[in-house]
UniProtKB/TrEMBL annotation:
Gene: cmpR_4
HTH lysR-type domain residues: 8-65
Cellular component GO terms held in the UniProt record: cytosol
A GO molecular-function descriptor: DNA binding
Protein name: HTH-type transcriptional activator CmpR
Keyword field: DNA-binding, Transcription, Transcription regulation
Domain of life: Bacteria
Length: 300
């Protein structure tokens, strides 16, 4: 019996089950598109291996012996398990089950990803998504190091070795205390506010670097009084009158009812931003990650 695992194959088990279901070697052979002699030989080999008769052959068909009933019961279970494995692997291949590691910048996480990921998981509830917040430069670094399946961040010009697929667009706005002298303006440019006191995000954030670069292009250096780690803290610092802040308009408008602030669009052309999905090679993604990428890319 110790040789069963090595010598008893799935094809023989499948043919044996067919014979038992049809009560006939001939009908089983016809159903399985194989010669009756080959089916008979397979069952004879199984009987030799088991050491017991599995069926009794008659002129009008076969009957299953007690040993055959035992083999039949286990064969059905084995075949069912293999079919279940195949179905589960098919779901993995189709991208509906598995694990994806995604890194994204703060703007994507706060504005868009909660709703988009929730919509994806309603379609594919068996996909586990590990979402980590990182600044845009670190998103790119982690993708290049293959520490994440893909990332989402602001479009990065001149980033060799990565693909960038459009995801969503956002617009920057200025948040000011409600009683600020410039609060009456309908919109503001960076030139209009360059001389103000700012509260800002930490220096390694993409938004901080973008603002510094645009201010330098105007020949100015922004006066940043306080730096914080989150957009929520940025809004509360502005509410307290510690300075003005530049942030995604969609985020800023969430605080209009709860804080004593106003939000004005930033009119500069560069304030319209493209968020991108960044990855090394779409062809090397797992089926699960590729399905999520395709879904997110269709949301823009």
């Amino acid at each position: 019996m110790e040789n069963l695992l090595r010598k008893l194959d799935l094809t023989s088990l499948r043919l044996f089950v067919a014979v038992c279901q049809e009560n006939s070697i001939a009908r089983a052979a016809e159903r399985e598109f194989i010669a009756p002699s080959a089916v008979s030989r397979r069952i004879a080999d199984m009987e030799s291996l088991v050491g017991l008769a599995l069926i009794e052959r008659h002129t009008r068909g076969v009957t299953v012996t007690p040993a055959g009933q035992t083999v039949l019961r286990h064969a059905r279970r084995i075949i069912g398990d293999v079919e279940a494995m195949g179905a589960e692997l098919s779901r993995l291949y189709a991208g509906v089950k598995g694990h994806v590691r995604l890194v994204a910048n703060l703007s994507a996480i706060v504005q868009f990803l909660p709703e988009d990921v929730a919509a994806f998981q309603r379609l594919f509830p068996e996909v586990d998504i590990d979402l980590e917040e990182q600044h845009s430069p670190d998103v790119l670094r982690l993708v290049r190091e293959r520490a994440a399946d893909f990332g989402i961040c602001n479009r990065i010009p001149g980033a060799p070795g990565v693909e960038q697929l459009p995801y969503r667009r956002d617009r920057l706005a200025v948040m000011l205390p409600a009683r600020h002298p410039k609060a009456a303006a309908r919109q503001l440019s960076l030139q209009d506010i360059a001389g103000e006191t700012f509260v800002g995000l930490r220096e390694n954030s993409a938004l901080t670097q973008q603002l510094a670069a645009q201010a330098a292009a105007l020949g100015a250096t922004l006066s940043v009084k306080i730096r914080v780690a989150s957009l929520d803290a940025l809004c509360r610092m502005t509410h307290a009158g510690l300075g003005i802040a530049v942030m995604p308009q969609q985020v800023a408008e969430l605080y209009l009812q709860s804080l004593d602030v106003v939000v004005r669009p930033l009119s500069d052309e560069w304030a319209q931003r493209q968020l991108c999905i960044v990855l090394l090679d779409q062809g090397q993604l797992s089926a699960t990650a590729a399905t999520l990428v395709k879904f997110l890319a269709q949301q823009g």
